[in-house]
Write a structure and sequence with these properties.
single chain; 192 residues; alpha/beta; Arc Repressor Mutant, subunit A; two-stranded parallel ribbon; 7 helices; 6 strands; 13% strand
Length: 192
């Protein structure tokens, strides 16, 4: 195989995409509202990729993704990833995310502390937001403080972290209310 390939495949939540190279999976694209939008996102991020039959490694990843989205607990340890464009810090974050058990979550601060970089919660959040290996690297298990699960990665499509966690039996907080956003501001002001 020369260059990168991609394939679009059916899952319980819609048509997902996978991009791979000779080294391994380059990215996973969760479904957009329409398949054409999923394909457009793949083309924008990987214009050099050509649609073709999945490699053996990509097929293994597809089987795991399909199983996970049906509520299964697949093992992605045999799936090779192409981490050529991924920084060392982000790799460490992704390795840690893979160690989080199904149905459990960690916060950006907890991941940063576990990596020995306690002041790097913002960097962990950026790494999670840039995770190209959706579901294979379960970035949906890493949340902001308070277990808010509304953020998506660029490869997240229309599926929220909350929905992915619900498939795993976890129940994160839906979203911040205006009260929760304003409370810290109000609490920091002196009473007059």
């Amino acid at each position: 195989m020369v260059g990168r390939g991609y394939s679009v495949f059916d899952t319980a939540i819609g048509r997902c995409g996978i991009i791979w190279s000779a080294t391994g999976v380059v990215a996973v694209q969760l479904p957009e509202a329409r398949e054409i939008d999923t394909r457009r996102r793949i083309f924008q991020a990987h214009p050099e990729a050509r649609e073709q039959r999945p490699s053996e490694n990509a097929e293994l990843a597809i089987e795991g993704i399909v199983g996970l989205l049906q509520g299964g607990d697949p093992d992605f340890s045999e799936v090779s990833l192409d981490a050529g464009g991924v920084t060392g810090f982000n790799r460490r974050v992704y390795e840690f995310a893979c160690s989080i058990p199904r149905g459990e979550t960690r916060t950006y601060h907890e991941v940063a502390r576990a990596l020995g970089a306690s002041g790097a919660a913002h960097s962990v959040a950026q790494a999670i937001a840039r995770n190209p290996y959706m579901l294979i690297v379960p970035c949906h298990r890493v949340l902001e403080a308070g277990n808010y699960a509304d953020r998506l990665s660029p490869y997240g499509g229309v599926i929220s972290k909350r929905r992915l966690l619900a498939l795993e039996g976890a129940h994160p907080v839906a979203s911040k209310t205006l009260f929760e956003v304003l409370l810290p501001v109000a609490a920091s002001r002196p009473l007059t």
